[in-house]
Amino acid sequence: MLKIKDNVDLNELKKFGFKYTICEDWHNFDYDDFEISLGDERQLNIEFTNCYCEDNINKFIEFLYDLIQSGLVEKV
Questions:
Q1: b/e string for 51-67 if b means 16 or more Cβ within 10 A?
Q2: 55 SS3 class
Q3: What is each CA distance from 5 to 24, 59, 70, 74, in whole angstroms?
Q4: Tens of pLDDT along 13-22?
Q5: R_g (Cα) of the chain, nearest Å
Q6: Whole-structure pTM over 0.85, yes or no?
Q7: Second label for 30, Cα 20 to 30 Å away, from 11, 16, 18, 76?
């Protein structure tokens, strides 16, 4: 499981397209075929609507890579 580190200010997620919604959830809706949201205890919830498109899989991998390289994510 991947999660946002406890010492990270959640406002840092805005740099990656996350938005804080009225439901008090953090979501990234930048991509048509997958959604990443922040769940309980800062875990990353990933939902694919269409994982058969290679371009979208590459976008997803690059997005996760950017989060990890920025030091925001840890594996638990």
A1: eeeeebeebbeebeeeb
A2: helix
A3: 19, 22, 11, 6
A4: 888 888 777 6
A5: 12
A6: no
A7: 76
